[in-house]
Amino acid sequence: MTLIDSRPGIKATYEELSARTGTYIDADLAVTRLGPPLEQELVHWFPDERIEEVGQLYRELYPEYAIRPTPAMAGARAAIEAVRRAGGRAIVVTAKHEPNAKLHLSHLGIEADAVIGWLWAEAKAEALREYGATVYVGDHTGDVRGARTAGALSVAVATGPCAAAELLAAGADVVLDDLTAFPAWLAGHIAGRPGA
């Protein structure tokens, strides 16, 4: 919900998972809780002993059902370009299964300098530190925690499941309505303007 609006594709994948397993999944509810790892959602619908098996099936279904219906978020490409114009590298650090994250970006023509998957919340700091990230943009309080753990500036966009007030309360340094505001914010930040 930062670079891509994964709700339509994830909903379609949950619906197919439900059909294949014969287990009811409220896909509309599930897509309101995006951000945490898949397994944290699956526990609402499946017994613990099935989580690994069902998670694997979900990831196998994902490329067929989730990639095509998933659009880029407004401002996603411009945000990546703004980072590059400023001399930076645009890396994607996500809780999503890394191969599926790469499929999304490739399908949408969004070119990241690196994609690192399977990291959630504070664990995202591993990749952020490894790549020397000084700013991390995310849409969830878990992203805020990851940025703060890495010592990076936390820029949050209120386009995911967390409202602006919740992101601020979690410690975000900056909250933007969406990525369309990011290039101007970045230019101000680099120029050292107050409020940027």
Overall description:
With 196 residues, the chain is mainly α. Helices cover 48% and strands 9% of the residues. It has ten helices and five strands. It has helices spanning 7-21, 27-30, 38-42, 51-66, 76-85, 98-108, 124-130, 141-150, 164-169, 182-191, and strands at residues 91-93, 114-116, 135-138, 153-157, 174-176. The strands form two sheets. The protein has a three-stranded parallel sheet with strand order 3-4-5. Helix 1 (7-21) packs across helix 4 (51-66), helix 5 runs parallel beside helix 10 (182-191) and helix 7 (124-130) crosses helix 8. The radius of gyration is 17 Å and the shape is globular.
Short description:
The protein contains ten helices and five strands. With 196 residues, it is mostly helical. It is globular, with a radius of gyration of 17 Å.
Topology:
Elements: H1 7-21, H2 27-30, H3 38-42, H4 51-66, H5 76-85, E1 91-93, H6 98-108, E2 114-116, H7 124-130, E3 135-138, H8 141-150, E4 153-157, H9 164-169, E5 174-176, H10 182-191
Parallel strand pairs: 1-2, 3-4, 4-5
Give the number of DSSP strands.
5
Low-confidence residue ranges: none
Question: What is the H-and-E element order?
Answer: HHHHHEHEHEHEHEH
Described by the principal axes of the CA atoms, the overall outline is: globular
Arithmetic mean of pLDDT: 97
The end-to-end span amounts to 22 Å
Strand residues, percent: 5-15%
What percent of the residues sit in helical stretches (DSSP H or I)? 40-55%
Structural class: mainly alpha
Q: What is the C-alpha radius of gyration, as a whole number of Å? A: 17 Å
Number of helices: 10
Q: Strand order, biggest sheet? A: 3-4-5
Largest sheet: 3 strands, parallel
